[in-house]
Amino acid sequence: MKPKGWKEVAPGAVITEAGSALKFKTGSWRAFKPKWIEENCIQCMFCWIYCPDMAVKAKDGKRAEFDYDYCKGCGICALECPGKKGNKAIVMEEEGK
Amino acid sequence: MATPLSLKELSKKEVLLTAGHRMCSGCGAPPVVKMVLLASDYPVVASNATGCIEVSTCISEYTAWKIPWIHNAFENAAATLSGVETMYRSLKKQGKIDKEIKFIAFGGDGGTYDIGFQSLSGAMERGHDMLYICYDNGAYMNTGIQRSSATPFGADTTTCPAGSVIPGKLQQRKDLTKIMAAHGIPYVAQASPSSWSDLMKKVRKALEIKGPKFMNIIAPCNRGWRSRTDDAILLSRLAVETCYWPLYEIENGVTRVTVKPKEKKPLVDFLKPQGRFKHMFAPENEWMLKQAQEEVEKNWERLLKEEAFTAPKEEAAKE
Amino acid sequence: MPKIVAVTGNEAVAEAFRQVNPDVCAAYPITPSTDLMQRFASFVNNGKVKTEMILVESEHSAMSACIGASAAGGRVITATSSQGLALMWEELFIASGTRLPIVLGLVNRALSAPLNIHGDHSDGMGARDCGWIQLWSENGQEAYDNTIQAFRIAEHMDIRLPAMTCMDGFIISHSIERMEYLDDEAVKNFAGEFRTLNPLLDIEHPVSYGPLILPDYYMEFRRAHAEVMSKVSKVVLSVAKDFEKISGRKYGLFETYRLEDAEIAFVILNSAAGTSKDVIDEFRNKGIKAGLLKPRLYRPFPYEEVGEALKHLKAVCVLDRADAFGASYGPLYIDIAASLYPYKERPLLINKIYGLGGRDYLPEHAELVLNELAETAKTGKVKTFKEYIGVRE
User: Fold this and answer.
1) Is the ipTM of this complex over 0.85?
2) pTM of this structure
3) Which of C155, C159, C202, C208 is the best mutation test for A, with the most CBs of A within 10 A?
4) How far is CA C362 from CA B230, C377, C388, in A?
5) What CATH number matches the domain at C254-388, 3.30.40.10, 3.30.70.270, 2.40.70.10, 3.40.50.920?
6) S-S: B122 plus which of B79, B317, C57, C327, CB 3.0-4.6 Å?
7) What's the CA gap between C155 and C173, in Å, rounded?
């Protein structure tokens, strides 16, 4: 996209498109990638609430897939995941492997 | 009806801070903002002091906010929001607005404890109907981990480095939560993202109370705390379990500890995983660990005494 | 029907504020503007206005709250002086950069140190380049008229910039003059309803104010601001024309006094222009062709128009009631020099610093300057380019 010239910038730099940051993908920051193992998931939703990047999707009150467009791979979800019978429902894997 | 405080129900709500913000990986502050916004069932207008959240959530044409939001400068999130709130009252009185709107200010510890302290104190004294949220990560993280008055005793920061003569910060933290309580405002609380339910209950309660409210919320910073990217929630939990960061509220002068650790952990459990306290574990700095632990004991004991002293009569009689 | 009154400058500006009836006012007391806000506060507390007042804990918070209130979507006022404006300095740039049409009554006063509460222009001059519109006023009538017009200028959809109206501390703010007040209804109609632009309180359309702008865009925003400044003088003139219809009083970008056929002239701001005009009359009686130019719209400065008005003169003295330390000349002088620089044939230009910290500007000072100008015009030689007058050696 061609950068705007001075005649096109918003008066007072006010942003009128709420949530436009969604256009800025932060997934490329990731060095480690979380993997969701659904059979170990007890739907506690801790990963959803603790995720700093709103990168855990939820649907109808249940956990859905990771949003890799934004996940920065911090690993909070994996650490906080209680899993099922000692088996984690989220594990971190090296990106690109 | 208010959304029940269950994650299942809350996850059906839209999170009004979107993905695509540029906070560091594993930052403890976005979960705080997320929980605060999820807790409210009212429309919210927010102000934000200059700081990590501000510079990372609103850059160029990209805003992560889906609520009306204003950043003015570093030291004036409270004064700025007091202006917004006053305009709201003026227009409401004139019949130009009829909606019920809540006002929330966000500031880091630098913008709240230090440079924004006067602005905060003034706005609270004036009685504006607003909630001020301090996300406390214990230093000026946005500018590169400089000491603030919220920096804990002993911590190594870039302006109070653990040197061979001066081993980090030698002063104790300013107890801002208590200072805000001393303003005599109707509601003051301390919270932690690890106890999401407690945090959100407090936000809800605060928003139902008319007048100025203040909440201090711990927000681990892995860059400044020299810890892992995955331990923000874990460290905020350890802060509570060691009683370094007690979860309590002061409502109309009545102090209540809202989460009491079943078993009080030693402070080193909180300090050990953080590189900023590493030097305190050297044999010659044993006194620092001792002093830090003593401070926690003193404050915790005092808080419990306060709770007992301010408890309403009938409750006290039952105990 | 206009009402003839005998009031102080502070009283007059407070009255203009009452008649415009803003939504929010945030202010902090400081001499000599305190009295202005006290009067306005009594309007608020006696139900004479709909305004909500925020009695903040500092001028920094006053302007911060004004910014919040203005962004929220309504008409906002404040007033201050001296150290108060200095403490607001950071926020002045944020108000203008965010394009918020706040109106500020500035009662000009000297800056510390040493501490001094009396009138000079150091405060307003210190804020001259912060992107605000500045209207300067000779007397209470002009302060009143400028204040009313400031709302229309600041809130104009092509402009949306904050504006400050300036009058001399004590000399005008605390002196009683005969002047005319307009009808409440006339002022109300003139100011009109406040029109919002991206109000924060519109929760259906959430906006974000105050983003971080990196080097890839910062300069574009500054250039856009400069463009808006360039449109101000046209709006000032059209608002003045409308104002003349309700008041009978004529305003331009600046006032000229016996300037058209003059050979020598003063350029001077605010109250000292009155004394200067009297002395000009005396010199005219002696056959010396003296005149005066008094800027009204000082920011943005109408360089071309001022240059045109002054270019025919032989010698001009710019009197500054503030110094710009280290810049060699006073701030007004620098602007006048810049206005005249494009002309090949231009007057000789000298600078006098006068009246600092409330030091009286007397007819004898004006006489001294006119005599020097007459001599300079005759010989074509400048004695001293810059000096302080009315100061003990």
Assistant:
1) yes
2) 0.98
3) C208
4) 74, 23, 14
5) 3.40.50.920
6) C57
7) 25
